[in-house]
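Box S2. Input/output pair 1.
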Amino acid sequence: MSLRTSSVGGGIIYKLINSSPVASLITGGVYIGTRPADSKKEDVVVRPRTITMDSGQKQFIDILAFVPDIKVTAKTFEPDIERLSTISKALLDALNNKHAPAWSSTVQEAEDQIEVDIVNFHAAFLRVYFIIYEPIEL
């Protein structure tokens, strides 16, 4: 079955991350869509966005790498900047300028540290530009 949906690009990016050093670098897992609500580990989340329906279908895929903050005092936490940077670089290496006959991916935007709506966590953020050139068999 030939599919050209947002799940195709997300699935390929998910596989690229899981087959890269990122999978063993993080303490948690790699997920599509959302991560477990109670996770206290380093997790990577792949969030496919809407795909265009023209020839050479294009989409953006957002990648968030969640990292627990460092406890400084009993009541003070700060971002683990070194860890965020390490994971962000590994993701960039895994996803930027990757090509196959049917698709390509390029990182369009990357930030080592963003605030998220989770207490005592920060995340690295990457936005991947993904193009499907021809139907992909799943």
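Box S3. Input/output pair 2.
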Amino acid sequence: MTKTVKGGDIPLPGAKFQVWNADDEISIGSAAGNLAVRAEAGSEVSIRKAVAAASVKADIDNGTSLMLKSANGMETTLGADAVDMEPGTYTLTATQDGKTLEGAEVEIEAGKAYTAKVAGGLLGNHAVLSDDGYAMPAIKLAGPRPIRRTWPSTSGSAHTT
């Protein structure tokens, strides 16, 4: 197989070809069209769906409650199931065994996942919010190690891609 310069029969220097199995293709399920990715050898390319909200859950014991209060006064009680929160600044408060603990002002970013909990310190327990990374998983499009498959050919020898 050769590649020539368009409109002639001069070989195109440095042209490389790859073959892949259609089963290895990644569908992103978009009506927007197809996506082709070219990456330097050894590099990794991934995409992540952008989301407008953050995902926040609580890691709590019985007798403990955690709440986020927005700047406009809206209160959201947190539980083990994640809730979607608009990005912004909130006050995180905790109540443990009927006692209100020291609160914290927290910043929530769109597309991120967070866990609220009660943590102990030198001055007692207080509410904290930890950043768990992105709410949506990354889809790897290209990476340093290609997928290799071997299958028998009609000539009797095996082909590897």
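Caption for Box S3: The two ends are 15 Å apart (CA to CA). Residues 157-161 have pLDDT under 50 and may be disordered.
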